[in-house]
Amino acid sequence: MTERRSAAADPQPGRAGRGAPLDAQTSLRSAALWAPLGVALLVASAASDRVGALQVGLLLAVVAGLWQVVRSRAGHGLSARVPIVLVVPLSVLGAVQMPTLPAVEPPPPAAATTGLWLSHEEVMALPTSGAGWEQVRADATGDWGDADISDQKSDHDVKTLAGALYATRTGDDAMRAQVTRAIEDAVGTEDGGRTLALGRNLVSYVIAADLVGYRTPAFEDWLREVRHDELDGRTLVSTHEDRPNNWGAHAGASRIAAARYLGDTADLEAAADVFRGYVGERNVYDDFDFEGRKWQADPDAPVGINPPGATRDGVDVDGVLPDDQRRCGCNLDESPKEADYVWEALQGLTVQARLLERAGHPAWAWGDRALFRAVRWLEDAELPAEGDDTWVPALVNDAYQTSFDGEKAPQIGKNMGYTTWITEG
């Protein structure tokens, strides 16, 4: 009688019978096929924006391959076909049914910072010694003159700001009261002036009011209205939106300060768009009224600040402010002899940038770091800040961590000052 042998005891060559140990070479070949393939496909699918059954199947493929290796080395039986049979349909199914996740949203803008210019805590962290502080103290305790917003050369506004900084840092209530009276004295004095004067003089009063906590319905009503009052045929807002030069730059600084103080989010966002257009982002705003275009990198697409790498007739104009640089009285192929109007525009633009930054906007980065490029061009052209522009480099250096030439106690400007002190914190 012929002995009947068990299939388990006599497996076919190259195949593992039921209950028999898995052939190591077969396991390793299967693992070598599926594991790398699974890994590669997993990486590819992870790089896309799709997830689902495909990735589950591929993960099983990797696990199956590695599992076979482990089991074969441990001497346990496991059919190579089992995980593969499960994996292949899942992988194919996943290839057909791959749900798409919603597009990843960009991160929200940074939260607005307390304080238009500085918070109380930031002021209290600043030193009460050194050249910067001594300038604040001297101007705060000195003669401020008379309030007159219509006078575009007035410095009563900036010295009122010095008083607010001093009162906040020292807790001097008498100085705080003096600041309040100065702000109240300024209300209504814009009549008879131009929007250039209003743009230069308003911003420091608003920041001073914020620092000392001055807020009354009458002041808020005036501030709300003065932005739209017509002065010599223009308003503060229209000047900001029409003039891509120092007029518009100063108007923008005062407009932004007022909007932030009043909590006027709609006007703040509108002003931010104008700033972006000024620094070269024409896709955001391009309704300026440009005049001479000699210094424009592209006369058909004029901007407030020329773009990176810009040239005109072979001349480097990257960072040039064309609508103010045209007033230098020089040609492109000549070395400019002065840049007074350019630096004045930067007085307004740098104040806008800091105010916008504290409102949650990355203004210093807009226009491919336009303000950095503007100051760099001026320095390369050997046209450094002078006189009442010398406070500007401190703000730029603080924003970009640069070292443009500045002074320890620079002269106050037409709309701002004391920047070496406020950037010491």
Keywords:
425 residues, mainly alpha, Glycosyltransferase, 2 domains, two-stranded antiparallel ribbon, 17 helices, globular
Strand elements, count = 2
Number of helices: 17
Compute the CA-based radius of gyration: 34 Å
Described by the principal axes of the CA atoms, the overall outline is globular
Low-confidence spans: pLDDT under 50, at least 5 residues?
Answer: 1-28, 30-35, 37-63, 72-109
CATH fold-type name of the largest domain: Glycosyltransferase
Region (Disordered): 1-22
Pfam family, one: Alginate_lyase
Organism: uncultured Acidimicrobiales bacterium
Protein name: Alginate lyase domain-containing protein
Write a structural description:
Helix content is 53%, strand content 1%. With 425 residues, the chain is mostly helical. The protein folds into 2 domains: 73 residues; 303 residues, Glycosyltransferase (Alpha/alpha barrel), CATH 1.50.10. Strand 1 and strand 2 form a beta hairpin. Helix 10 crosses helix 11 and helix 11 runs parallel beside helix 14. The N and C termini lie far apart (103 Å).
What's this, in brief?
The protein contains 17 helices and two strands. It has 425 residues and is mostly helical. A hairpin with a 2-residue loop joins strand 1 (311-312) and strand 2.
What is the fold's blueprint, element by element?
Blueprint lengths: L23 H24 L5 H22 L6 H16 L23 H5 L6 H11 L14 H15 L2 H14 L8 H18 L4 H10 L9 H7 L3 H17 L2 H14 L32 E2 L2 E2 L5 H4 L14 H19 L7 H15 L11 H9 L18 H4 L3
Antiparallel strand pairs: 1-2
Helix pairs in contact: 1-2, 2-3, 5-6, 6-7, 6-8, 7-8, 8-11, 10-11, 11-12, 11-14, 14-16
